[in-house]
Amino acid sequence: QAVPYIETERRDFVSAGNKLYHLRQKGLTIPPTDVLIGMICYHRNLELLTLDKHFDNIPEVKLLDWQRNNT
């Protein structure tokens, strides 16, 4: 199995809602799905491989440096 299934939990949705609120307070609008993905990764200590710049605004998310790993 290349990509494992990860169960979404209540805490993921609660954290995503709180993060969305704080980001909007800073004037940032990020798609809720991106914030939810970020919180899922955060709660499970996972690195995220993405080219989406939205995740740069979510400091809790550890981003995988795909360029470093692509050499």
Structural overview:
- The protein is mainly α.
- It has a two-stranded parallel sheet.
- The longest helix is centred in the first third of the chain and has 16 residues, at 10-25.
- The radius of gyration is 13 Å and the shape is globular.
- The chain has three helices and two strands; from the N terminus they run ααββα.
- α1 packs across α2 (32-43).
- The mean pLDDT is 91.
* Largest sheet composition: 2 strands, parallel
Which value, in Å, is the CA radius of gyration? 13 Å
Question: What percent of the residues sit in helical stretches (DSSP H or I)?
Answer: 40-55%
Query: Number of helical runs?
Result: 3
Q: Which class of secondary structure composition applies to the elements?
A: mainly alpha
End-to-end CA span:
25 Å
Dominant shape = globular
The tally of strands reads 2
Q: Tell me the strand percentage band.
A: 5-15%
| Unreliable stretches | none
Give helix and strand order, one letter per element, not per position: HHEEH
Mean pLDDT across the residues is 91
Strand order of the largest sheet: 1-2
